[in-house]
Structure formats: structure tokens, C-alpha cells
């Protein structure tokens, strides 16, 4: 019988907590569970904060959160799961950034914490109490970490950059209307 050390137990707790929260947030977006608004309502919100098309953005965010969170909790495909969740949280942090850091002011603290935890798990690995370990790390190879994080970082930069340009153009258009009077 194998004796698990405190690192394995700590990683299990971190995976279950972070993954569970992410999966629940994704289920809100995708299915309207836990008081969420489902794809339709989340899509309208995404459109209102500059992510277009809204429904596709809601689907992508929901899948990254629900799928990434579930896989993190299970400790399966940990590099890809952590990277996907971190990318989704970077997109959420971009929305909250104008409100500062702290969550009580609507800031990005919560999204940043979940994203950093997910990225940390992608880098550290899931520990021995995981499906990755049980499967011989078939979906958790060393080379997968930089690939998953690199691809996600590039895709997130493109998506958030396009969103930021839309928001900037909208603000500039509103300012032009104000000054025309």
C-alpha cells in the first residue's frame, strides 16, 4: 500500500477546491445552474462587456471553466485543464480590472486568484491522488505544460485584446456624441 504524503493531500485539496469552484461557475454559464443565466443571459452579458459574439464567448468561457475545473478536480490532463481555466480567468480579470484589485469593489482579485491557482496546478502537476497519476501521466507530460500555457496565453491575448479594442472604440464613440452637442 502506498502512503501519500502531505504534498499529495495538499494538491488534492487545492484541485478539488479550485476545480469545484471553476466547474460551478462554468455550469452557471452553460446551463443556468446555481443561479446562473445560462448561455443566453451570459451571452448578453458577454456582449455588453465587449466579448463578441456574446453567445460564442459565453460558450468558450463556460467550457473552459466547467471543463477545466472538472478536469482539475479529477487531476486529469492537468496542464491543459489548468491552462484553459487560467485563460478564462484572465478574460474575467480584464472585465473587472477598471474596478481595481479588491473584489468588494468589483475588482479582479477573485478571478486572478482562481487563475493563478489553476496555472500553478498546471505547472506543479496533480500529485499522486489523481487520474493523471493513475493513468501513468498519459495526458500530463512535461512538454505539455509550456505548450498548453503558451497556446492559451496567445489565444487569451488575442481575445482580450479584441475585447479591449471594442470597449475603447465604444467609449470613444460615446465621447464623440457627448462633444457634438
TrEMBL record:
Keywords: Cell membrane, Membrane, Transmembrane, Transmembrane helix. Belongs to the DoxX family. It is found in: Cell membrane. It comes from Streptomyces diastatochromogenes. It comes from the Bacteria. Its main location: membrane. It is a multi-pass membrane protein. InterPro entries: DoxX (IPR032808), DoxX-like_oxidoreductase (IPR051907). The chain crosses the membrane at residues 71-95, 107-123, 143-162. This is RpiR family transcriptional regulator. One of its GO terms (cellular component) is plasma membrane.
Amino acid at each position: 500500500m502506498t502512503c501519500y504524503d502531505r504534498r499529495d493531500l495538499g494538491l488534492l485539496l487545492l484541485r478539488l477546491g479550485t476545480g469545484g469552484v471553476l466547474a460551478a461557475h462554468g455550469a452557471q454559464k452553460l446551463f443556468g445552474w446555481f443561479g446562473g443565466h445560462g448561455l443566453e443571459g451570459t451571452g448578453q452579458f458577454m456582449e455588453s462587456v465587449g466579448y463578441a459574439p456574446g453567445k460564442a464567448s459565453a460558450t468558450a468561457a463556460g467550457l473552459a471553466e466547467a471543463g477545466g475545473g472538472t478536469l482539475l478536480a479529477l487531476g486529469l490532463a492537468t496542464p491543459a485543464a489548468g491552462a484553459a481555466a487560467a485563460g478564462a480567468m484572465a478574460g474575467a480579470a480584464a472585465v473587472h480590472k477598471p474596478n481595481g484589485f479588491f473584489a468588494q469593489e468589483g475588482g479582479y482579485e477573485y478571478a486572478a486568484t482562481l487563475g493563478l491557482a489553476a496555472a500553478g496546478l498546471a505547472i506543479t502537476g496533480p500529485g499522486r491522488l489523481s487520474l493523471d497519476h493513475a493513468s501513468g501521466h498519459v495526458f500530463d507530460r512535461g512538454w505539455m505544460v509550456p505548450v498548453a500555457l503558451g497556446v492559451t496565453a496567445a489565444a487569451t491575448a488575442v481575445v482580450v485584446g479584441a475585447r479591449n479594442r471594442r470597449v475603447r472604440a465604444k467609449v470613444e464613440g460615446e465621447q464623440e456624441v457627448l462633444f457634438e452637442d
